[in-house]
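go over this:
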Amino acid sequence: MELLEHRRALLEERLIEVVDGVEPKALNDGVRHATLAGGKRVRPTVTVLACETVGGEASEAVDFGVGIELVHTASLVVDDIIDRSELRRGTTSAWSELGYGPAIITSDGLLGEAFALFSSDPAAMQVVSEAMVELGVGEATELEAKPKTEAEYMTLARRKTGALFRAAAELGAIAADADTFTVEALGEYAERVGVAFQIRDDVLDAVADPEALGKPTGHDAMMERPSLVQITDMTPAEANGRARAEADRAIDALGTVDVANAEARDYLLELAEFVVERER
């Protein structure tokens, strides 16, 4: 666990460095509020661990990890505007704190800083661009063509949440100069972890205490959002079962990778367990 905290500290240090360099001050204020308010940093941690699992060094993946965290944060800023959510990561959301216009500009600024970190590597640019296309399709689907079945929901979850998880792991493999098969296998692992993460999010929205969660609950039902619990009338326990199945498939995909660093691989295995059991 100490080594995992060290990796997170590397990511946080670089994230702060990137944020400190954002100009002008108005944009810096927005980016700082959205980015440094907290967060689990799951995606960038996946980037670093994926890199190490296949023989790379943590330092080689830090910029890509910070980049994917910035992309994720940009998407959260927009989500909160759409949902009118006033709370994010235990504090005020960007639009609630700054207003709609500055929040939109903050999202643009986050994406600009992110792509600056990917720009030196064409493979990284391609991976993130593809993930953002999937994310955009997922967001549009959620707004206008809401899924009505479990299968349609799973497609949405892969696009809206799984795509950025996939990109996070693939970026780590790319940083380690892994072969195509390894990039794909780590991507599948992370995509399934992301889907499990989203299903667990649905469950927490239905049953968790908002103060413990750090954001409002009951939002899916109130806004008629396509939660797995809402679409299928599953119980929370049954939905957790679906999350567990995705986590198990993620572990299977990880098992096909030639491992150079067993400790890093073990952390990825723990993550697949954590996303199903987390309470916030």
Notes: The domain at 2-274 is CATH 1.10.600.10 (Farnesyl Diphosphate Synthase).
